[in-house]
Amino acid sequence: MTSDTELQSWKQEWQERTGPLPQWKARIKRQNLWMALSAALLGVALALSTGWALRAGGSFADGLASGMWLATVALGSYGWWVRRGAWKPGAQTTLAYMELAHRRAVAKARQLRFSSLLLLAVMVPIAIFLAWSERGLGMRELALLAACGIEVIFFHHYRRRKEREAERTKQLIEELKE
Amino acid sequence: MDTMLVSGKSGETAEERFERVLREYGPAWSRLASGYEKARAAREELVQEIALAVWQALPHFRGECSERTFVYRIAHNRGLTHAYRRESAHAALDELPAALEPVDPRPPPEEEVAIASQRNSLGAAVQRLPLVYREAVMLMLEDLSHAEIAEILGISESNVAVRLNRARKALKDALGERP
After folding, report:
1. pLDDT band at A12 (very low <50, low <70, confident <90, very high)
2. Can you give the three-state secondary structure of chain B, one letter per residue?
3. For residues B46, B50, B52 and B58, what is the CA-based torsion angle, rounded to 10 degrees?
4. Which residues pair with B139 in a beta bridge?
5. What does the DSSP 8-state code read for residue A73?
6. Residue B85: closest C-alpha in chain A
7. Do A86 and A103 meet the contact criterion of CB atoms below 8 Å apart?
8. pLDDT in tens, A121-176
9. What is the DSSP string of A76-126?
10. Which helix (H) or strand (E) element contains residue A4?
11. Which of residues 50-109 of A touch B (CB under 8 A)?
12. Among residues B157, B134, B154, which one has the least CA distance to residue B146?
């Protein structure tokens, strides 16, 4: 078999392989729904905590509402700042897309580290304060602290994954530059 | 859904344009996806991701290159992103402590038969190529010219030729064993 006929037979064999075409409309709807749900969930959490603080008052409700607003603003601002330069590729090339993927993985890892540190910086002093105060740690406070602890562990694992992703993309960028 | 007129073929709405692109290139997306992902469910998910990326990018296409190159570039970049994520995830699995690893990692006998019959196919040989060769060879098998592949990958045509040469040799070696 000559080189050309071999290539032609490969092309023919390759192009005979096809899979089902995508149900793209369902996918777009699902993605839009997911984004709307995430935004709605954040909005409801902020509205509920603010409403509770305004109606019931008290140090716990006030602290929770302020903490949620502070965390949303701080995480949103840091996320926006850390992702600068990672919104779109510098060029329409594989290398540029890979560099973009690397920047995004690094940015996400930093954002997760910041989120963990922020949570710890807020929760540790509150836990110490409550533990030493006359009121002590009730079930509600313990549940909130446990939830934050689980979140910190989740952030830690997710960050490790993103760091590995950043490492792998860096290797691939080097391979592509060869 | 946005149905405004866009700069595709005259009179096409965004949706009509995408439907046409899907008809023309959908089968190629599924083949490209098969080069990056072996598992059927994940492969179908990847084709969906490619379709979504093309749908989002098409309104921004200003004709700097051919529509074919534009569409293949998006599909290829999506596939590549999927591949490195998958490999990162596999690297994470490799770090599992020995106690958590399965005792017998071999597939069941009936699956082994199916795997053996596919092992010698062109698709399987392509999947086994290193990423840098795989990406070029898949575009070549889709009948794209060296110039188009160079444009999609962002490398020179001579570099494309070198990669394809090595990839073809590796493919030939892999396929040499089949009947």
Report:
1. confident
2. CCCCECCCCCCCEHHHHHHHHHHHHHHHHHHHHHHHCCCHHHHHHHHHHHHHHHHHHHHHCCCCCCHHHHHHHHHHHHHHHHHHHHHHHHHHHHCCCHHHCCCCCCCCHHHHHHHHHHHCCHHHHHHCCCHHHHHHHHHHHCCCCHHHHHHHHCCCHHHHHHHHHHHHHHHHHHHCCCC
3. 180
4. none
5. H
6. A165
7. yes
8. 888 887 887 778 776 777 877 888 888 899 999 999 999 999 988 888 888 788 77
9. HHHHHHHTTT-SS-SSSSHHHHHHHHHHHHHHHHHHHHHHHHHHHHHHHHH
10. helix A3-15
11. 91-98, 101
12. B157
Please identify which residue in the block is written with the tokens 């569409």. B71
CA B73 to chain centre: 10
Smallest Cβ–Cβ distance between B30 and the set A11, A19, A172 belongs to A19
Mean pLDDT over residues B92-100, rounded? 44
pLDDT band at A65 (very low <50, low <70, confident <90, very high): confident
**Cα-only R_g, chain B:** 19
Read off the tokens for A130.
């409550």
**CA-to-CA distance for B60 and B8, rounded, in angstroms?**
11
Are the CB atoms for A15 and B142 separated by under 8 Å?
yes
pTM value? 0.59
Residues comprising chain A, all counted: 178
Structure tokens at B48: 């969906």
B135 in contact with chain A, both atoms CB, cutoff 8 A: yes
**What is the DSSP code (8-state) at residue A18?**
-
Residue of A nearest to B46 (CA): A22
The tokens describing B67, both together, are 């529509």
Nearest to B27 among A18, A98, A164 (CB): A18
Q: What pLDDT does B46 receive?
A: 87
The least confident of A44-53, A91-100, B81-90 is B81-90
Q: Name every residue whose Cβ is closer than 8 Å to that of residue B18 and which is 6 or more positions away in sequence.
A: A24, B54, B55, B58
Looking at chain B, the whole-number percentage of residues with pLDDT higher than 90 is 14
Supply the pLDDT for residue B164: 92
The CA-CA-CA angle for residues A89, A92, A96, to 5°, reads: 50
